[in-house]
UniProtKB/TrEMBL annotation:
Keywords: Zinc. Pfam families: PIG-L (PF02585). This is PIG-L family deacetylase. The keyword Zinc applies. GO terms for molecular function: hydrolase activity, acting on carbon-nitrogen (but not peptide) bonds, in linear amides. GO terms for biological process: glycoside metabolic process. The keyword Zinc applies. The lineage of its organism: Bacteria, Bacillati, Actinomycetota, Actinomycetes, Micrococcales. It comes from Ornithinimicrobium avium.
Amino acid sequence: MSTLESFPTDWQRALCIVAHPDDLEYGTAAAVAGWTAAGKEVTYLLATRGEAGISTMEPAQAGPLREQEERDGAAEVGVSEVHFLEGFADGVLEADLDLRRALAREVRRFRPELVTTLTHAESFANGNLNQADHRAVGLSVLDAVAAAGNRWIFPDLLAEGHQPWDGVRWIAVSAAADPTHTVDVTDTFEQAVASLEAHREYLAALGPDYPAPRDLLGEMLADPQAEGRYRWAARVHPR
């Protein structure tokens, strides 16, 4: 990670796309806090409400609860626009045409210059196995951005009034094993902790042995080259 470049800053609108509530809070929110403080427009888009994520709670109850926790966590880093796809269930997402179309629709609607997502690799940078929903969304984001800019793909989106958008300049993939760019998040670390802490019920259900948000993020974001500082790393794909 010694040769990571500084993350681009010459953009104004970002769309952060993940599968579940809390996915963005494991690192990306720290970067988001800096972006919103700088006046950039950041929107969150989640494929599901995470309704299958609490084993002790029925999905009908867990979904609305986790949706609100996501909104609360987003507010801690300056994000007020939090949207959820309709018709996709937690735990059984597939990288199919339905998901690609739904994501392409939202890219056309929000017209971002930067799109962020989680890695679609089988493993995270720390070697832990990635989850199926993360992989499905991460891969679909790459394809949806391309589809959003091509008027001949998903012509039904044109009929809905969603004009093509080929203005995405970068796709940033976090938690990848081979990052290319970095953001210094030392000054926003506390906001990132508060953002993850907002997922109170979800974290409580993980049990007392699960690391506290401060400890977990401290380990995930620690800068190996500068003690006491933090950084968020992502693989950036120029478009």
